[in-house]
Amino acid sequence: MQSRQSQQKTLLVVDDDLDILDFLHDLLSMEGYRVLITTKTEVLDQLQQNALPDLILLDVFLSGRDGREVTRHLKSQEETRAIPIIMFSAYPNVKATVQAAGADAFIEKPFDMDILVTKIAHFLC
Q: Start and end of every Response regulatory domain (predicted)?
């Protein structure tokens, strides 16, 4: 895997699986990103204009709230609509519904690390 210059871009990763959060935090930090992780989708409702992430990685199926609902909300708000959202799931058949919700990309779990890093870099260039 190649290291990418990221100019210390901030990524927000939302998943209810702590192992995945730890994995993504470590992987993306090694790529040079500032990585914020959370299991709480409420964080997305409280994003402040001066602290918006450069990209959001969001699980489709979250405890208590569907990631597609969160995506629709973020894409409907002027402050957050331009933030790229990459959604992920172990269920590849949700790809069409993810795109319909407004996600910018979809990646299947288990992650191919190179594909994930490449997709992120694509949206942050």
A: 10-124
Model confidence pLDDT, tens digit, residues 67-107: 999 999 999 999 999 999 999 999 989 999 999 999 999 99
Burial of 88 (0-12, 13-18, 19+ CB in 10 A): buried
Q: Please answer whether residues 6 and 35 qualify as being in contact, where contact means their C-beta atoms are separated by less than 8 angstroms.
A: no
CA distances (Å), 9 to each of 15, 16, 56, 92, in order? Answer: 20, 23, 11, 28
Which fold, 10-124? Answer: Rossmann fold (3.40.50)
pTM of the model: 0.90
> How far apart (Å, rounded) are the C-alpha atoms in residues 90 and 107?
9
Instruction: Please state the domain extents for the chain.
Output: 10-124
Backbone angles phi, psi at 87, to 5 degrees: -100, 155
- Per the document, the length of the chain is 125
In DSSP terms, 65 is beta-bridged to 62
